[in-house]
Hints:
CATH class of the largest domain: Alpha Beta
Mean pLDDT: 84
Strand content: 25-35%
Helix content: 40-55%
Order of helices and strands: HHEHHEEHEEHHEE
Oligomer: single chain
Largest sheet: 5 strands, mixed
Structural class: alpha+beta
Number of helices: 7
Low-confidence stretches: 139-151
Radius of gyration: 19 Å
CATH topology of the largest domain: Heat Shock Protein 90
CATH architecture of the largest domain: 2-Layer Sandwich
Amino acid sequence: MAQLLPERFSDPEFRSRFAERVGADVGRIEGTLDRLAEFAALPPPESAPVDMAALLDRMLEERREEIQRRRLLVLKELDRSQPMARGDAAHLDLALRALLDKTLELVPEGGDLYLASKHHESGLRGKPSVRVLIRYHSPTQIARKGGIEGTSLAESALEIVLADALVRGQGGQFTLDAAGAEETLIVLDLPA
């Protein structure tokens, strides 16, 4: 678009679209830099009990207005009987915020999101774990249905890399399955 600006500068519609696109791109760059700065400022992880159900509830509550405005259907099944994972609350908070924010960006208006947490006695290398699952329609499927133009899972790489590093830093496992044409599945297995 920048290359077309000199020749299409007199077109008010083009200038308007140009301003929107540049503004959105600058916003994404600022968000990326903010998230990287937050990641860099984290102290080394400490291990303490973290209530994953409460953490996910809080995150959804903080995004309630956006969820309602975009008419998203959010289904959650959170294990409240054994919700405690072992990890660093600040690290897990950043990992889940990064993933949830990107997920909400990718889910089309009126789309759906599924969040679950469940305690497993031998879910992480044979030891107790809390599994957190995030499932949504995949970006490629969204693009085919007229959703977010030009958004791909590759553009989500920062959030994925941050979440993976933060979860592995807790002794956990991060799994991303975006191979299916219909949905993307993210699984975090955290020590319990």
